[in-house]
Write a sequence for this structure.
């Protein structure tokens, strides 16, 4: 039987994840009191039970008993009941924005600032995050991208290394992305903006891609960056990094950076081994 506990930061996407898991055939229960977890696990693992896939949502709404969760997981393991923990998180900025958009109060700061509740919750959950089987950062994930990650883990049973690599194109004239971990500058390549028939097109168009990739330097750049990431990614995973943002920039973020970001994404997708996301920040911005 597959038994999953879905937990993590409030606003991280737990409710959405449980709905998706339900669509994948899981029997889902949300916000069961932590004190009932062992009894619940005992019931669903009894011989002859009809349950084959169960997902249980737990979070800080349980109050102080939530802090007992690591010990309860130890007890379940000693009794031969295997439990996978799926931990959902997002950046502080994203969590605060989500709460303000929905006008909901944070469960740990019902009468105070959302920022304070987020900080307290992060501290409370640090222990369970370290024990998580899977960690998904939903900061920049679209709903369909989250579903794809869950499908990869729980339906296709593919290897998942808890690292989400975001490949982002951008334009230097609009500023370097503040969340970038690695930044590469491709302004050394000829600019399609100065080719009249390509000026209004982007790296999403075949004509621009063909123009950029006709230069040997573009292929050499891709080879070297791919080799670098193949070295870095396993080491980042080993050190417990959950999110890596690779930013590729040109002048305006419409032509060269878009082409090369797409090409790099495709190369990494072929190799597999981590979650991937592609984002073109400035492809619709004005200017070259």
């Amino acid at each position: 039987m597959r038994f999953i506990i879905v937990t993590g930061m409030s606003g991280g996407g737990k409710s959405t994840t449980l709905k998706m898991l339900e669509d994948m055939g899981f029997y889902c229960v949300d916000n069961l009191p932590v004190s009932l977890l062992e009894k619940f696990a005992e019931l669903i693992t009894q011989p002859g039970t009809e349950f084959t896939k169960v997902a249980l949502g737990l979070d800080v709404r349980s109050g102080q008993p939530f802090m007992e969760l690591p010990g309860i997981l130890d007890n379940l393991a000693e009794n031969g009941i295997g439990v996978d923990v799926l931990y959902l998180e997002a950046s502080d900025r994203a969590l605060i924005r989500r709460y303000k958009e929905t006008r909901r109060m944070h469960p740990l700061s019902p009468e105070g600032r959302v920022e304070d509740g987020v900080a307290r919750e992060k501290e409370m959950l640090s222990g369970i995050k370290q024990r998580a089987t899977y960690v998904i950062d939903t900061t920049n994930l679209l709903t369909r991208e989250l579903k794809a990650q869950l499908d990869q883990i729980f339906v296709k049973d593919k290897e998942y290394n808890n690292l989400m690599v975001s490949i982002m194109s951008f334009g230097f004239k609009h500023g370097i992305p503040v969340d970038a971990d690695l930044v590469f500058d491709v302004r050394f390549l000829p600019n399609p903006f100065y080719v009249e028939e390509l000026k209004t097109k982007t790296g999403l168009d075949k004509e621009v891609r063909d123009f950029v990739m006709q230069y040997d330097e573009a292929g050499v750049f891709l080879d070297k960056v791919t080799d670098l990431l193949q070295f870095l990614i396993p080491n980042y995973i080993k050190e417990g990094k959950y999110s890596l943002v690779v930013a590729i920039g040109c002048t305006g973020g419409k032509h060269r950076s878009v082409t090369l970001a797409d090409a790099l994404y495709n190369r990494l997708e072929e190799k597999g081994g981590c979650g991937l996301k592609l984002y073109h920040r400035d492809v619709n911005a004005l200017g070259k």
